[in-house]
C-alpha cells in the first residue's frame, strides 16, 4: 500500500509539472486572439511614451490600471518587442503558475492532515481545469493575473482570521491592492464578500474591534481614492468606467434573457471547471458516493456562492468574470476528491492525465486551425501588406474592433522606427487611414479585406 501511494503521488507531481509546462504550448503558435492586440498596444504605447502609470490606446490616454503592463514591458525588453504577442501571454502563464502554487500551499494548510500531498493534487486540479488550461490561463488578458491577486488576498485573509495573525492580514491587503492595480475596484467587492463569510464561519467578529486590524483595513481602502486623486488624469474616473461596465450587464435585457442567464450560468461555470467537476457531479448523480461538507468545504462553498452571485443575477456577465474564482473552485474540488476511495481517486487522476495530454493537439493543431489557419483569418498577412502599401507614410486608424487593433499592434512592433499607429482625428491630410466601415470622406480607397468576420478598409487621404 505504501509503495502504491508513493507511485500515485509521483504521478500527480509529474502531471502537475507537465500541466504547467504545457501552458506554454499556444504562446508562439497563435496570432492575437480577441483583446490581446489591445493589451499589446497599450503596453507598447506605455513603453514608447515612457509613461508607466497611464495606459493609452491608439494615442488616447485610458483610465485603466497599469500594473499588468509592467511585466509585459519588462519581458518584451528581454525577448524583443516583435514578440510582444508572446510576452502578453507569458505574463498570464506565470500568473497561472503562481496561482497554482498559492492553491497548493492553501490546500496543504486546509487539507494537509488528511493527505500529505494535497497541495500537489490541488495545484494539478487547478492547472487542468478547462478554463485555465485551454483558455484564460494562457490568454494574454489581465484576468489570470487579476485572479492570482484576488485568490492570494482571500487565502491570506483566511489565514489571518484563522490564526489571528496581523502579518497575514497585511499580506492580504497588499494582494488586494495589487488586484485593483491590475484591473479595477471589483476586486474589493469579492474580497469584502469573502471576508464577511470568513468572519461568520470562523466566528471572528471581534476582530473588527481590534484597532490595528481596523486601521490597516481603512488605510488599504484609501488606495483607490489616492490613485484617483493623484494618478488618474483630470476628467477621467476609473470607478465610473467600472460602474458603467457593471450597469451594462443589467440594462437593456428582457426577462427571457435574465431567465436564460440564471439557468445556464451555473452550468457554464461547472462545465468550465472540467474534468474533475464533471466527474464528481457524475458520481453524485449516480449516487455512488456521498460527499460531506465539513466546515472547511462549507466555508469554501459559501465564499464561492457569494462571489458568484453578483455575476449570476445579471444578464450580461460572461464566464471571463469568473476567472478569479477558479482557485477557490480548485480547493473545493480537491477537498471533495480527498473523500474518494483509492480506486475512484486513481480514476480521477487518470482523467486529468487525459486532459493534460489533450492540451498538445489542442494547442498545436485544433486551436490554430479554428483561429488562424484559414486565409480569411490570417491577420499577419494583412498587416504585412498594409506596411508594404503604406511604406514610410503616416498611418492612422479609425478601426477599434479586435481585428483592427490586432493589425495596429503588429504594425507598431514590426516598424518600431516609426511612431505608433494613432487614432485619426479627421483633420490630417497626407496620411493612410484604416477604417472599420466604408468611409468615402477619408479619400481614395486603396484596398479592403474581409478578415475574421470584419471588414478592413485602407484609405489614402491626399493633401489638398
Order of helices and strands: HHEEHHHHHHHHHHHHHHHHEHEEEE
Question: Rg from C-alpha positions?
Answer: 24 Å
Beta strand %: 5-15%
Shape: globular
How many domains make up the coordinates? 2
Biggest sheet overview: 5 strands, mixed
- Indicate the percent of residues in helices: 55-70%
How many E-type strands? Answer: 7
Average of the residue pLDDT scores: 90
Unreliable segments of 5+ consecutive residues: none
Through-space gap between termini:
86 Å
Oligomer: single chain
Q: Reading side by side through the largest sheet, how are the strands ordered?
A: 4-3-5-7-6
- The DSSP helix count reads 19
* Structure class: alpha/beta
Amino acid at each position: 500500500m505504501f509503495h502504491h501511494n508513493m507511485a500515485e503521488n509521483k504521478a500527480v507531481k509529474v502531471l502537475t509539472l507537465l500541466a504547467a509546462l504545457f501552458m506554454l504550448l499556444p504562446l508562439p503558435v497563435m496570432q492575437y486572439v480577441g483583446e490581446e492586440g489591445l493589451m499589446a498596444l497599450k503596453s507598447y504605447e506605455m513603453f514608447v511614451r515612457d509613461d508607466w502609470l497611464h495606459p493609452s490606446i491608439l494615442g488616447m490616454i485610458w483610465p485603466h490600471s497599469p500594473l499588468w503592463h509592467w511585466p509585459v514591458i519588462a519581458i518584451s525588453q528581454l525577448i524583443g518587442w516583435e514578440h510582444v504577442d508572446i510576452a502578453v501571454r507569458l505574463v498570464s502563464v506565470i500568473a497561472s503558475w503562481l496561482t497554482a502554487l498559492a492553491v497548493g500551499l492553501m490546500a496543504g494548510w486546509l487539507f494537509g492532515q488528511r493527505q500529505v500531498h494535497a497541495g500537489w493534487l490541488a495545484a494539478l486540479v487547478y492547472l487542468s481545469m478547462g478554463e485555465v488550461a485551454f483558455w484564460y490561463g494562457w490568454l494574454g488578458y489581465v484576468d489570470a493575473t487579476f485572479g492570482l491577486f484576488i485568490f492570494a488576498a482571500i487565502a491570506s485573509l483566511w489565514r489571518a482570521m484563522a490564526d489571528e495573525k496581523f502579518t497575514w492580514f497585511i499580506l492580504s491587503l497588499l494582494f488586494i491592492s495589487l488586484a485593483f492595480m491590475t484591473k479595477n475596484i471589483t476586486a474589493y467587492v469579492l474580497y469584502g464578500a469573502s471576508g464577511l463569510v470568513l468572519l461568520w464561519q470562523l466566528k471572528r467578529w471581534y476582530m473588527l474591534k481590534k484597532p490595528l486590524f481596523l486601521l490597516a483595513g481603512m488605510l488599504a481602502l484609501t488606495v483607490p481614492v489616492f490613485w484617483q486623486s493623484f494618478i488618474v488624469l483630470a476628467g477621467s474616473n476609473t470607478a465610473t468606467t467600472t460602474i458603467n461596465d457593471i450597469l451594462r450587464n443589467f440594462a437593456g435585457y428582457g426577462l427571457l434573457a435574465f431567465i436564460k442567464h440564471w439557468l445556464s450560468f451555473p452550468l457554464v461555470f461547472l462545465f468550465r471547471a472540467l474534468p474533475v467537476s464533471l466527474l464528481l457531479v457524475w458520481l453524485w448523480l449516480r449516487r455512488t458516493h456521498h460527499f460531506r461538507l465539513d466546515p472547511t468545504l462549507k466555508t469554501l462553498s459559501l465564499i464561492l456562492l457569494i462571489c458568484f452571485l453578483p455575476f449570476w443575477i445579471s444578464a450580461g456577465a460572461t464566464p471571463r468574470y469568473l476567472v478569479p474564482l477558479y482557485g477557490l473552485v480548485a480547493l473545493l474540488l480537491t477537498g471533495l476528491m480527498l473523500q474518494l476511495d483509492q480506486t475512484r481517486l486513481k480514476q480521477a487522476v487518470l482523467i486529468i492525465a487525459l486532459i493534460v495530454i489533450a492540451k498538445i493537439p489542442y494547442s498545436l493543431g485544433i486551436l490554430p486551425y479554428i483561429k488562424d489557419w484559414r486565409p480569411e483569418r490570417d491577420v499577419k498577412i494583412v498587416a504585412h501588406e498594409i506596411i508594404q502599401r503604406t511604406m514610410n507614410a503616416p498611418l492612422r486608424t479609425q478601426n477599434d474592433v479586435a481585428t483592427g487593433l490586432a493589425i495596429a499592434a503588429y504594425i507598431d512592433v514590426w516598424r518600431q522606427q516609426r511612431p505608433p499607429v494613432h487614432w485619426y482625428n479627421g483633420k490630417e491630410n497626407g496620411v493612410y487611414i484604416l477604417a472599420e466601415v466604408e468611409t468615402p470622406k477619408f479619400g481614395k480607397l486603396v484596398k479592403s479585406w474581409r478578415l475574421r468576420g470584419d471588414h478592413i478598409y485602407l484609405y489614402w487621404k491626399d493633401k489638398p
